[in-house]
Amino acid sequence: MPAKSSPTKSKSGMSKSGTPKPARAKPVRAKPVRGKPVRAMAPIRLPPVPEDSFTPEQQALVAAISAGPRGKFKMSGPFFCYLHAPGYGELAQKLGAHCRFGTSIPPRLAEFAILVTAQHWKSHYEWAAHAPIAEKQGVKAETVRDLQAGRAPKKAPKDELAIYAFAKELYRDKRVSDRTYKSVNALLGDSGTVELVGLLGYYAMVAMTLDVFRMPVPEGTPLPFAEPAIR
Questions:
Q1: Residue 157: inside a domain, yes or no?
Q2: Which of 89, 108, 91, 118 is nearest to 200 (CA)?
């Protein structure tokens, strides 16, 4: 009897020599290690910069911040990060000084917007730095507590609620609806609305900087948010 022929395989599964082709491995995407939120931060990621070893660029950055509206340089928060890239830091601190002190946005609304940003990014240092300032500028303590807890501040004044809706929509949807835009534009005008977007963008950048490099809050200050357990 003639020998039975072996089953043939499709060309897609065979090499030219007739041997099966190895299966292509699917790319494996690295996933962050997640766990339950914790109440402590991991160690800071950037090394210390001794003052006696400052480069001319770092010295210039410290002098510019000290001579500006903030009045002094702090070896903490975003300024500590900026020391590691002083050219970038000089430009960033100038923008920050203008966003905080030089816009037409009333200080109360500016600080309110900063808190909305800090809560969105769960930025401990940004919140710890600006929550007391916000209250001094007239943001009610109840509103601050609502924002910290992630709740809409329903008892806040109408102008703060307009800023809240604007910021939340922008961070969530990457867009702002006509209705929300018109309410803020009626409040701040064209110039102020442009400045508000800039302020939100700047403090989002600061929050990301603080979060990535794990900048700690002042000693003795409890973390305002649960720290995501990502390592």
A1: yes
A2: 118
